[in-house]
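Could you help me review a protein record that somebody else here produced? Here is the record exactly as it was handed to me:
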Amino acid sequence: MAKRNSEWFDWVKALLIAFALAFIVRTFFFTPIIVDGPSMLPTLHDRDQMIVNKFKYQINDPERFDIVVFHASDQKDFIKRVIGLPGEHVAYEDNVLYINGEAVEEPFYTEEQDDVLPYPGPTNDFTLEDLPGNYEVIPEGHVLVLGDNRNNSTDSRVLGVISMEQIVGTTSLIYWPFDRMQMVGK
């Protein structure tokens, strides 16, 4: 009888440790997310399932073109691409991205993608001053984000710059559906 109670206790202890580890990993390091909507087409598709790395930005700053997940509201997280970094001025003119007055190529954005987008066409011109907040440069601790499907994306053009406190983490691994399993990013 004592041996049976000992086995039972060992199983309960092992399950509690497993749940505790899963909770710690999900809370502090990695968590799944499901893409909701077409704003990141053609890079990410609606219902793609991804892993969010919550730890990376604890030791590194975001880089241009990282794909990030952030709290857009208390109820909703968005997935967008980092375009502008702190201290930079961002403008879009004639479908060209300008950072501090210099044209920057967007390697993930090609004219061929217009064939697969539900709302194809050029990105509407804007400057950082046109966005909510009317900043001349992106403030410290903030980034400017845009969806890859620029004509169907609620991003910094509507929300303004995003604070680092809003950012959950970065994502680059699509793990479901299997036929789309891949690393995405820059």
Q: What stands out?
A: The helical segments are 2-28, 56-59, 156-159. The CA atoms of residues 66 and 81 lie 6 Å apart. The domain at 30-183 is CATH 2.10.109.10 (Umud Fragment, subunit A).
